[in-house]
């Protein structure tokens, strides 16, 4: 009875509509997975992992049955881990190479140094560029952008001319074609006038 009650309480978090049916099918195929984008695959892997973790503590036999049903999803989970591990290795090597040689490494150089084949690296870079991975990284950078601009603005207000120029350049590039360009330029002009007035008063 307790087991039945526990199993009834096993619920999924709200999934996207286009993967909801996969959580209720008798078997998830590779073809099913190929129709999902990267974010949907990640959500499906998360939901299946949560369910199997719960079942492992409640009903061993049902856990075995569900694991077989979702074996391709678990394979996808393992593939994602390998992809993430390769991504970290490639990024770290590119960063180190840039610091040492002031240029990007070739795929041949990466292959010889990090132990991945040229084909694996080429495929990884193509998947990163064409998939959702790059978009997600850019979203994270955009999330941090406001803090960076606040720091740059405060440095500019303290009289750092380089910071003022950089702040102005960033605003101009991000607001090209926007009605806010003139407003931003006016703010920058005011900042420059205040800086020059401050310097004159101190001289």
Describe the protein.
The protein is mainly α. The chain has three domains: 2-69, no CATH class; 79-131; 143-202, no CATH class. The protein contains eleven helices and no strands. Helix 10 (161-174) runs antiparallel to helix 11 (181-202). The radius of gyration is 26 Å and the shape is elongated. The termini are far apart.
List descriptors.
single chain, about 200 residues, mainly alpha, 11 helices, elongated, disordered N terminus, WH-like_DNA-bd_sf
Strand content: under 5%
As for the number of domains, it is 3
Largest sheet: none
- Helix and strand run: HHHHHHHHHHH
What's the N-to-C terminus distance?
86 Å
Number of strands: 0
Brief summary:
InterPro entries: WH-like_DNA-bd_sf. With 203 residues, this protein is mostly helical.
Please give the structural blueprint.
Layout: H1 2-8, H2 17-20, H3 30-34, H4 38-58, H5 60-69, H6 71-101, H7 107-114, H8 118-130, H9 133-157, H10 161-174, H11 181-202
Helix pairs in contact: 4-5, 4-6, 9-10, 10-11
């Amino acid at each position: 009875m307790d087991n039945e009650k526990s199993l009834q309480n096993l619920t999924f978090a709200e999934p996207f509509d286009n993967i909801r049916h996969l959580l209720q099918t008798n078997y998830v195929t590779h073809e099913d997975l190929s129709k999902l984008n990267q974010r949907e695959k990640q959500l499906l892997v998360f939901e299946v992992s949560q369910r199997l973790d719960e079942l492992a503590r409640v009903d061993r036999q049902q856990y075995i049955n569900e694991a077989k049903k979702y074996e391709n999803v678990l394979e996808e989970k393992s593939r994602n881990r390998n992809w993430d591990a390769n991504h970290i290795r490639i990024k770290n090597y590119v960063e180190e190479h840039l610091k040492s040689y002031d240029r990007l490494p070739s795929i041949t150089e990466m292959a010889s140094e990090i132990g991945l084949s040229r084909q694996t690296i080429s495929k990884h870079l193509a998947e990163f560029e064409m998939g959702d991975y790059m978009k997600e990284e850019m979203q994270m950078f955009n999330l941090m952008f406001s803090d960076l601009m606040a720091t740059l603005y405060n440095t500019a207000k303290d009289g750092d001319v380089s910071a003022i120029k950089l702040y102005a350049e960033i605003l101009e590039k991000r607001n090209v074609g926007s009605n806010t360009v003139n407003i931003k330029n006016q703010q920058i002009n005011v900042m420059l006038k205040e800086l020059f007035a401050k310097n004159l008063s101190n001289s």
